[in-house]
Amino acid sequence: MTHWSKEIDRASKKEKNWRSRGQKVIDRYLDKRKGADHIYAEDSKTKFNILWSNTETLRPALISSTPIPEVRPRYKKKDPIARIAAKIAERGVEFQVDQFNFVDYGRKLANDFLLPGRGVTRLRYIPTFEKKKQKVPLKMVEEMGETLFLDREDNRVDEYEFDENGPFVEQEQEELVYEEVRPERVPWKWFRCDPDADRWEDVQWVAFGAPWGLDEGINRFGRKFSTAFKAGKDAVSEKTEGESKDEAVVWEVWCKRTRKQLFIVEGQDKPLEENDDPLNLEDFFPMPEPIYAIEDNDSLIPTPEFALWQDQADELDRLSERISKVTEAIKARGAYAGSEQTTLSNILHQDDNKLVAVDDWAAFIDKGGLDGLISWVPIEQFAKVLQMLEQQRAVKIQEIYELTGVSDILRGATDPRETAKAQQLKSNFGNRRLLTKQQTIQNHFKQVYRLMVEIIVEQFDPQTLQMMVGVEGQNEVFMEAMKMLQSDARRAFNVDIETDSTIAADEQKEKEGLAEAMQAVSGYVGAIFPLVQAGAVPMPVAMGLLQDYLRKFRFGRKLDDLLDEFAQSQPPPDQQAEQEKQKADAEQQKAQMELQLLTQKMQLEMQSMQQKLAAELQAKQADLQIDAQKAQQDLVQDEEKHDQELRQDQEEHAVKVQNTKELGRVQADVKRQQAQAGPRVQE
Questions:
Q1: Which tens digits make up the pLDDT trace of 316-356?
Q2: Are 633 and 626 within 8 A, CB to CB?
Q3: Residue 451 in contact with residue 123, Cβ under 8 Å?
Q4: 308 with 399, same domain?
Q5: What local confidence, expressed as pLDDT, does residue 339 receive?
Q6: How many CB atoms lie within 10 A of CB 92?
Q7: Which residue in 24, 8, 20 sits closest to 191, CA to CA?
Q8: Whether residue 71 is found in the same domain as residue 37
Q9: Alpha helices in 168-306 (DSSP H)
Q10: Nearest Cα to Cα of residue 82 among 93, 71, 91
Q11: Residues 637, 678 within the same domain
Q12: C-alpha span between 78 and 83 (Å, rounded)
């Protein structure tokens, strides 16, 4: 084995137990039962898949929308080039994110985070080339009285053409037509890292694995892949206990120490390919630090969160199985006299509203009727046991919710007797349990966007980036901004995402926040403007205070940029303002007008947002009201139908009882008359 094959094997052995546990968690989530290929397999036991339920509840709370990128200068200063550079980087990321399904990638990443306990993302730079014919000018050289034509490599060319620019040949060359960089979820089974590192900062190499077919490998690496494929295929067969696999495992290794990228096939001594620092990233690795469900300060091996409440889940499954068996035992079963088989069979198998004739009615009545002929198995004890088991299961479910932090509010289950304030308090405390997970996911996306900016700046052609950000021609400002991004000065830019942009918005809270903000802005402008007009408070200070206050409402980048641009557009305090009163008055009037215009724009913007949210909320409330009315109508109709059927059954039963009594009375009278007539006949 080569050095890298040994390293990957060491890393695999170190994480073997965790991968085995992670696979069991996945199988439980997907309800893959041992020996049950069909969903209705006879040997399947009754399960209560609360792992699936909790995961489906938590995942939307972690990622439900595409994160909105924010690129800002780290230090605020009046530098238009820096602001343009930040905007170029931000629009470049936005353009790339719009090209693929970010939410689907985020959901799969969240599943890896919630189930096996580790989510891994890598960035992939993908250039697209097209072969096009281009005119290549030739060099003319005089040698021994003869004119020779040479190409760019000084090779003699005998077949050529002339145009207005001189001799040339047409050559087929690859031309860059498009570039993209996209985040890619790495399957949790196919990631390895330095087994000697206990912290991410100490990791010296990472590896991404994947099974490759023969044709796929030849298209990528050429014919040399054939030899490596055989060795890799044999290695796969050995690890799968002789099972034949028509594929080999290829590992893409990134070594930070040597800053090299290598492609290794398991079982092969020589690398398929070796490249020097393909992306030129600051931290070299084309990936941020993985996200861990439960971190260990002394190890990079994660722990699945399910391991902390697996015992409770197992107990819940056992209770569900017992409930299923008790429910199965509650059946209408009884015994009857064999001599009455014909009579009971006729009665029990008769259609509705039909009477059965009994040959010896008096004897039938003397035996107690149907109650006397049938003895039913008692089910009251089974029902009591079932009730107790269901109570125990409810308690166990609540224990699991407490362990996992899945509150009633989060699940959409509330007590109608609770007040709105009580529900709000429960929601606040329930969300605190999720805060750490949400921050972990959001920080991961921040690092993903940071790497995207790095790759865009380092690898993208300026023309490609111009197309993405909507700049045409040789714009000098654009080129200056690109130089700033490509220099070390890009470290002066802060890459972030809008707070809570990955979480579904609460329309009611946003509406209340807009109303509060509008009221606060009106009061602030009314209080601060006289001070600004009097010269007691400088305009930049006033705008800075307003900007800091409004940021807590989380309106996003648009409003913040508006305030920022206005604040930076204001001139610095003039030390000679007292001596130049006319100039100061003119500037003050200008600032006053600008402030009024800004206030109007902000109010219009927030009013528009408020109207939109109000309309959406009203529409949702109307839909809910319609659904409630429909449900109420259906309920009333069902109750009326049920009452009608019940009255009809009662009437029919009364008729049957009355008929039975009349028939019994008639038969008794006949027998009595026959008994009385007998002696008279004898006389």
A1: 989 988 888 888 888 777 676 666 666 666 676 667 777 77
A2: no
A3: yes
A4: yes
A5: 61
A6: 24
A7: 8
A8: yes
A9: 214-221, 225-239
A10: 71
A11: yes
A12: 9
Segment holding 441, helix H or strand E: helix 420-459
Q: Burial of 559 by CB count in 10 Å (0-12 exposed, 13-18 middle, 19+ buried)?
A: buried
Phi/psi zone of residue 663: left (φ > 0), alpha (ψ -120 to 50 degrees), beta?
alpha
CA 653 to chain centre: 59
Q: Are 533 and 659 within one domain? A: yes
Q: What is the C-alpha separation between 145 and 147, in angstroms, rounded?
A: 7
Residue 47: closest CA among 394, 384, 375, 315: 315
- Of 536, 537, 586, 596, nearest in space to 566 by CA: 596
> Which of 447, 482, 504 lies at the terminal end of a domain, its last residue?
504
Compute the distance between CA of residue 588 and CA of residue 573 in angstroms, rounded to an integer: 11
Tell me which amino acid residue 232 is: G
Three-class secondary structure of residue 177 per DSSP: strand
DSSP 3-state of 209: strand
CB-based contacts of 173-177 (< 8 A; 24+ apart in sequence): 173/131, 173/132, 173/133, 173/134, 174/129, 174/130, 174/131, 174/132, 175/129, 175/130, 175/131, 175/132, 175/134, 176/127, 176/128, 176/129, 176/461, 176/464, 177/128, 177/129, 177/130
Q: Which of 504, 528, 559 is the last residue of a domain?
A: 504
How far apart CA 210 and CA 353 sit, in angstroms, is 70
- List the one residue out of 179, 189, 232, 204 whose CA is nearest residue 15: 189
Cβ within 8 Å of residue 7, ≥6 positions away: 194, 195, 205
Q: Which of 325, 292, 315 is CA-nearest to residue 50? A: 315
Query: Within this chain, do residues 465 and 541 fall inside the same structural domain, yes or no?
Result: no
pTM (two decimals): 0.67
Any domain includes 149: no
pLDDT in tens, 452-490: 998 998 888 888 888 887 766 557 778 888 888 777 645
Q: Are 434 and 61 in contact (CB under 8 A)?
A: yes
Beta-carbon neighbour count of residue 127 at 10 Å?
Answer: 15
514 and 639 in a single domain? The answer is: yes
What is the layout of strands, in order, in the sheet containing 273-276?
Answer: 191-193, 205-212, 248-255, 260-265, 273-276
- The two three-digit tokens of residue 298, written as one number: 């002394």
Our count of domains for the chain comes to: 3
Structure tokens at 466: 């111009």
Residues 556 and 457 in one domain: no
Q: Which of 206, 324, 314, 187 is nearest to 256 (CA)?
A: 206
Distance CA 317, CA 323 (A): 10
- The Cα 305–Cα 18 span in angstroms is 12
DSSP code of 170? E
Of the two residues 409 and 162, the one the predictor is more confident about is: 162
- The DSSP symbol for 573 reads P
Count CB neighbours of 251 within 10 A. Answer: 22
Distance CA 198, CA 208 (A): 19
Range of the domain at 518: 506-683
Asked if residue 619 has pLDDT above 70, the reply is yes
Q: Is residue 64 assigned to a domain?
A: yes
One domain, residues 610 and 475:
no
Q: Is residue 361 in a domain?
A: yes
SS (H, E, C) 47-110: CCCHHHHHHHHHHHHHCCCCCCEEEEECCCCCCHHHHHHHHHHHHHHHHHHCCCCHHHHHHHHH
For residue 603 the two structure tokens come to 């109010």
Number of helices and strands (H, E) in the chain?
20, 15
Task: Give 22 or 223, the one with higher predicted confidence.
Answer: 22
Per the document, the length of the chain is 683
Asked whether residue 281 is assigned to any structural domain, the reply reads no
Q: Are 36 and 43 in contact (CB under 8 A)?
A: yes
Average confidence (pLDDT) over 520-529: 67
**Total Cβ atoms within 10 A of residue 557:** 17
pLDDT in tens, 135-178: 878 877 777 667 777 777 777 777 778 887 788 877 777 778 88
